[in-house]
Design a protein that fits this description.
single chain; 274 residues; Arc Repressor Mutant, subunit A; 6-stranded antiparallel β-sheet; 11 helices; 10 strands
Amino acid sequence: MPINHLKKIIKTFKGNSDWERIAPSEKMQKYIEGFYIFSCADIEYKQLIFNDGFPAIIFLPSMTDHVSFQIASSLVRLQTGWVNGGVMKNIYINNLNAVDTILVLRFKSYAFYDIFNLSPSFFRNKSVVSLGDINFDQSILDKIYSEKEIIDRIRQIELYIENFMFTPKNNVLFDSAISSIHNAKGQITVSNVVNKIGVNYKWLERNFLNYLGITPKEYIQLQRFIFAYINFTDSKTKDLTEIALISGFYDYNHFLKEFKSYTGKTPLEYINLN
């Protein structure tokens, strides 16, 4: 999703009229993290999109709306919405400001792949796909978009997902690993996680690949980057060395390398872009 929308979710901004979280129904809470409505009125024409490890489906206001993505040297056009997951690097969305709002559906760590019968490695080589690529039922899309109100569209989405309901996985140790990494804002090593929850590295890697399709190291790097991004964009002084150190990087060069890996630009180039 657009990284500045994800930033609002992570920071849990409140009292802001340009976005809203709608909790899933009680029976859906084991599968869905939340529904989010974001205004796109003030979004930049070209926006970095990012994923924090949890797959999401983004619905545009109408079935005929479309957006384009700059992925490496390719321009990819998607209609109605898109799905993203895995590790996203240097991917930008264009002309999202042409629509009024988007509806974001964020899944729990394990649920997405089971619901859509996909391998957890699905996003390994392609982190932005169409709704058709996950076999989202076209007739259900017709029902969703026949509703005028967002809350009614959400209900249609939940009714669709109910058809695939399964016994949720319950992995307390994996959940503990996720919480430890998130609470540390990515400033933690894989060894620290292993020692903290009392498992070995092979167990941790296997479970991350089974649930999220990425390694523990990749997940840690995603969390560290998004929190570094928040520190950077919120900073008034833009002291990059200070931002690097408080975000858990060894030094400025380490931060610069990782920032450029995810955005394709240096921090200052990125700020000038926006």
